[in-house]
Structure formats: structure tokens, C-alpha cells
Design brief:
Elements lengths: L6 E4 L9 H13 L7 H5 L6 H9 L6 H18 L9 H10 L3 E5 L4 H11 L7 E3 L12 H10 L6 E5 L2 H9 L3 E5 L14 E3 L2 H6 L5 H4 L2
Parallel strand pairs: 1-2, 1-4, 2-3, 4-5, 5-6
Helix pairs in contact: 1-4
Length: 223
Amino acid sequence: MTHRIRGVILDIDGTLINSNDAHARAWVQALAQFDIYVPYTEVRRLIGMGGDKLLPAVAHIEEDSRLGTKISERRSELFNREYLPQIHAFPKTRELLTKMRDSGIALAVASSAKKAELEPFLRLANVLDLLEGATSSTDAENSKPDPDIVQAALSTLELEPSRVLMIGDTPYDIEAASRAGMGTIAFRCGGRSDHDLAGALAIYDGPADLLARFDASPLARYG
């Protein structure tokens, strides 16, 4: 990398807010209500993908099928009722994004969440006013690890991929960014090990850790 970083594309689940476990539990509950029993650990390792990838992987069901649609709708109902009230932003999330903005870095979000879920998540993170744009699985044909969502977010920044980094918490973020021609900074706060996050330019505990070490990070190193 030789270009100054001008933009950052952020994942949100497990990166800005502590929602990964909640998503996994909502999927397990929803599937069980249709007599499909999948271990929590199997679902949890796939969080970061959208339902278009997760449902076929754990249950061999296409998300846009009749049954897939019912399961997805039930998952959304369970998540919003039982889990959303428990979710909060990771410490120093807004402060990190403010630091990036003050450093001349434009920000966008690329999430595998549905569009209807994305705005409440961004409000929980308290970052809506800091973003140039936000793309969801609704804005792309395929969710991560396909690059579609990341490329849609990149278009809102109007920057070359070489001048943009992704910040995420799963191997799916790293793969999607790589396929879009970008590097990734990874966070452990989503529950992944450093082994899972291999391929990232740097790995931090979460927003507070990156903020504390911002001046030595890839965001400043190439400035």
C-alpha cells in the first residue's frame, strides 16, 4: 500500500455494536420453530454472512423460497423483540469515527443486515451523522463474502479501492474487501480469533483499541 487512505468502509454487527451473539440466537430460535434444529455454534460461525448465504449453509434452504422467507421473517421478529433492547455500541465507537472524520477520512457502512434493520443499528451506534452512506444486503444481489455490498458502499465514497480500507470483524469482511480490491483492519470484539482474521492488515480488540493506537495504525501509517 502506497496511497494515502481517504475512505473507510465499516461493517456494523460485531464491529460497532455487540450484536453477533444475538443474531445467532435469533436464527437458532427461528429455525427451531420450523422444526429445524441447528447447533448455536454452527450458526454463530456464519454470522457476518447474510441470510442468502447462512440459510443454505445450515439448513439447505434458499432465503427467497417460501419456507426461507418465513424463517427470515420470524428471525427478524424474534431479534427485534427479544434481543435488540440488549444491544449497545462498543466503547469509543463514536469517538473513533469522529477521529477518522477529523483526519479527513470519508466513512460508509457495508452491512449484511437487511435495510430495515440497518438504521436502528446505526442509531444504536450513534454514528448516522458521520457517514457518507450506508449499504445493506437489500442494496446488493449477494451478501458477504461476495463483494457486492462493499462495492456498493465504495461507490458512495467515489474513491479508488486503493485509497479505502474496510473495518470488520469476520473473515467474510476480509474476503469481501479483498475481492473489491481493498485491505482490512479487523476487530476481535465480534468474537473471532486472530487465526480467523488472518489476512487483515492489522487486528485490534475493538474501536477503543484502534482509537488508542490510531497514529500507528494503517489509517495513519500511509498518510
